[in-house]
Amino acid sequence: MSDRRNVTPNDLSAFWMPFTANRQFKKAPRMFVGAKDMHYTTSDGRKVLDGTAGLWCVNAGHCRPKIVEAIQEQAAELDYAPAFQMGHPKAFELANALVSFAPQGLDHVLYTNSGSESVETALKVALAYHKVKGDAGRFRLIGRERGYHGVNFGGISVGGIVTNRKMFGTLLTGVDHMPHTHTPGKNQFTRGEREAGGEDLASELERIVTLHDASTIAAVIVEPVAGSTGVLIPPKGYLKKLREITKKHGILLIFDEVITGFGRLGTPFAADYFGVTPDILVTAKGLTNGVIPMGAVLVSSEIHDAFMQGPEHVIEFMHGYTYSGNPIASAAGLATLETYKDEGLLTRGAELAPYWADALHSLKGLPHVIDIRNLGLIGAIELEPIAGQPTKRAFSAFVKAFETGILIRTTGDIIAMSPPLIISKAQIDELIGTLGSILKTLE
Ligand code: PMP
C-alpha cells in the first residue's frame, strides 16, 4: 500500500468516533486492550470492572471460550455464504434456537447486523404486512418520547430524542409519538415498577387513534423499559394496556428488546417479564454477546404467513442485508445461546435483582442523587444537573469511575448500569461501593 498520508499507528485523528466528544477524547484517550469475564484491561494495564456489559450487550461476560472457539471454527470452515437465494445450516439452527425460547407465537426470524437495522426491518415488515393484507391505508408509525431505536432514519423518526433528530431534516412522515413513562418529580426512588398510572399513560394511544383514525396506523414501537434515555421503568399495567389498545384497533405492537432481551430483566425477554407478547420483537446486542454484530427480528406466524400467500417462485419480502445470517455471526449466536442456557443466565437476573436493588438504593441520600431506578439487572442513578452545564456532573463521574476501575455509562445526568449477568454479589458490592465513593467527591 502506498503511504500517501504519512500517519503513524498511534495517530488518533483518522477515526471519527461515534457518539463521542472526539476532541476531548483524543486529548485524554480511554483505551481498552483486553477483556476477560467481568473485567476490561486498559492500555496502561489496569483492570476495570464492567458495570455496563460493554454497551448493554456482553451479557455472558467477556471472551468466553465457547464463543471464541465457535467463531474460530466457523471462520475456518465456512466464512461467508451469500445471504440471498442461498443458505447455510447455522443460520437455520440459530433461528430454531431463538424461537424455541421466544415468547409463544413469535416463530419466524429475520436477521440483521445491529439494533438499528433490526428496528428498520421491523418497521418495514409492519408497513408491508398491512399492504399484503390489503389494508394499504395503514402507513402511520407511532413511537414514544424519549424512545431510542437506533440511528437510522426509521429509528430516529419513531425515536424521541431531540438531539438525535434535529440535525437530519424531515425524517419519516406519518409518525406520531406517545408520551414517555417517566414522571420527573414524582415516584422517585421507586424499587422496580410503579404500581399506579400505567393504564392512563397507555391510554394516550387512544388519543392518537382518535386524532388519526386506527385505519391509518400500522404499528406502535416501544422499548419495554427505555434504556438509553435513562432506564425509564414503566408503571405496572402500562404494556398490558398498550397491548389491549393495539389489538382492539388492528395495530401491530413492536417491542424493541435490543437492551431488555436475553436475560436483562431476569427473564429471556421483557415480554416474558411483563406477560405481554408483541407481534414483532426486535433484538441485537446480547444475541451474540456483543462479540459479532448481529440482530434478529422475531415475527408472529400470522405476519410471516401473510407474506407467503402469493405465487411460489416470487420473493416474499424485498428486504435483507449482505450479512443477514452471516455464518460467523450465526455460530457466535448459537454458542452464546448455549452459554446462556448452560449457565442459567437468562434467569439469573431474577435471583440477583433484590440484591442489586438493595445495593443501588443504598446510594440514596448521597450528594446530588435525585432518583434511583432499577429492574432486573438494570439500574440508573439520576443526578441533579449543574445549572447551565447539563451532563457535566454525570460525565465527570464517568471519567472518575474509569480512572478508579469501574465502567459505568452516562446519558445526560443519568448514570446507567447493566452489568454482565455473570456478576457476583461481591462484584455488585465493589461496583456500587466504588460508585458511591465517587459520588461523594463530585462537585
Ligand atoms: N434499540 C435500542 C432499544 C437500543 O438500546 C439500541 C442501542 N443501544 C438500538 C436500538 C440500536 O442498536 P445498534 O447500536 O446496534 O444499532
Strand content: 15-25%
Quantity of strands, as a count: 15
- Per the CATH scheme, the topology name of the largest domain is Aspartate Aminotransferase, domain 2
Q: Please tell me what the overall shape is.
A: globular
Distance between the termini: 50 Å
Low-confidence stretches: none
Organism: Devosia insulae DS-56
Pfam families: Aminotran_3
Cofactor: pyridoxal 5'-phosphate
Family: Belongs to the class-III pyridoxal-phosphate-dependent aminotransferase family.
Question: What can be said about this structure in brief?
Answer:
The chain is an alpha/beta fold and 443 residues long. Helices cover 37% and strands 16% of the residues.
Short key terms for the protein model shown above:
alpha/beta, Aspartate Aminotransferase, domain 1, globular, 16 helices, Aspartate Aminotransferase, domain 2, binds 4'-deoxy-4'-aminopyridoxal-5'-phosphate, 7-stranded mixed β-sheet, 37% helix
Fold and architecture overview:
- With 443 residues, the chain is α/β, with parallel strands linked by helices.
- 37% of the residues lie in helices and 16% in strands.
- Strands 4-10-9-8-7-5-6 form a 7-stranded mixed sheet, with helices on both faces. It has a 4-stranded mixed sheet with strand order 1-2-3-13.
- The structure holds 4'-deoxy-4'-aminopyridoxal-5'-phosphate.
- Residues 114-116, 119, 148-150, 223, 227-228, 256, 258-259, 284 line the site of 4'-deoxy-4'-aminopyridoxal-5'-phosphate (PMP).
- Its cofactor is pyridoxal 5'-phosphate.
